[in-house]
Amino acid sequence: MKLRRVLLMLCTMLFVAAPTLADNPKPVTRSVAPADRPGHAAVASAHKLATEAGLEVMREGGNAFDAAIAVAAALSVVEPQSSGIGGGGLFLLHRASDGKNVMLDARETAFTGASSNLYVDADGKPDRDKSINGPLAAAIPGEPAALVYLAQHYGKLPLSKSLAPAIRIARQGFKPDDRFLSALRERADVIARYPGSAALFLPNGKPPQRGWTFKNPDLANTLERIAHDGDAGFYQGEFAKKLVDGVRASGGKWTLEDLADYQAKERAPIAFDYQPPNKPKYSIVSASPPTSGGIVLAEMLNILSGFDLDKMDRAHRVHTIVEAMRRGYRDRTQYLGDPDFVQMPVAKLTSMAYADKLRASIEPDQATPSAALPPAQPESPHTTHFSIIDADGNMVAGTQTVNTSFGSCLVIPGTGFVLNNEMDDFALVPGKPNAYGLIGYEANAPAKGRRPLSSMTPTFVFGPDKDLVIGTPGGSRIITMVLEGVLAFVDGMDAQQIVAKPRFHHQYLPDVIYAEPGALDASTIIKLRKMGYTVNSGESHWGFMNAVIWNRKTNTLEAASDPRGDSGLGKVQ
Prior knowledge:
Helix content is 35%, strand content 14%. By secondary structure, it is α+β, with helices and mostly antiparallel strands.
């Protein structure tokens, strides 16, 4: 009887939420008094060399936006398995002088001739090799355009100064960490398929061992070209021709027009308030489409704002959060895509009225099976994130990626970087899961110039006396990790506690609660199973969260990197 009531309520709820044309919210502003500034800076990233690059640039007079260029480019050098100038990203920016919040969209775009037909075999089934590996997997990169745009519109230093640390590291070399070497071993067979990739990453034809010094003069030259010529150094001229010729020689379909047409775009972020019972209000700014991150985060927190989580036992708290996750991810599947091509009911999905209906459908002691939700109608763990606050209070939350580990594994000889495999983030075969188990339909179908739907969730949280800059890699699990990070921040945890906290996850389909070791105790798991959940508590650790907190009451900064990694570094200077 309970399940029937839930079904009737959900059917009514989803009918009300039918797609309508709605613009993203306008950028929100936050007034900052002249004295309300940290006076010092903090960076948290996935690698100590990238963190040091950002701090170095700020010591030379740069701001947080210059530091973001330095960190992003250094990560391209030291963490090619996770990000790089052959990929893209989303950069959430807060400018302290006027309180402006904006998202810079450097998401990759589909190439000319992209269609679902390219990614099926003779029997019409998904061809996973084509969507993950090699030239057809690679979308047009957006990262170089973002670096140029940041320098031109927000930075204080010339691009050549902000890129200098990355160029130096690439030319002089560094010793890769265990994450790099482990990922390289896992993808070595695919890397070996392509001569440019093998020459760069497989010395003597096999994966290197710890202690190897990795030098990448080709990448140093590419970054120098971008520093000197801006967008034209990558998207036009001789270098663009080298990329297109290399992709087409490998079996891809890129054109010179695809590269020349690429633009990084400013977009209004998703902005909303979160005020749980008996706690103060928090203003949250997060990423907007073409990522699902901010919308799903808003939907989940709007639902949870009606529950007093502090009064619940562990099992009922997890149950309530999981049901919010389930409903947010269900709507991700149905409605979201590239805002330049798809009309999305953003205002409705992020409204409290819609959250009220969703909240009312949650039974206090029973799981709602995902199969019971009205079905969606047809329509990596290998990413990286950094958080920055500078001395003036400017903030950057940057999440960038090549998608899965080492992206497509394709390096065009002479360029120094792997191309992404972001085409797999499209709904290449409607209703069939991608590399992260996510499904999609027409709203996220591939077509020339479209940007694939993402889960990246760079986020700012502005509290009564503390502010948080947060984000993480993790594929489909990014949004739930940021959700748990925000809840931990509201609960009063410090930066290191937030990034270290064990995590759990639910994404609508598969209908399973995934949990890291230590996230759910045995008693909680038994209670959840009695409620009707399938619980997988044997998961390995996931994510690599990086967070910075500014305590405006004490005017102190905290920077913390996820202890799940072995080379991340959060540092205050």
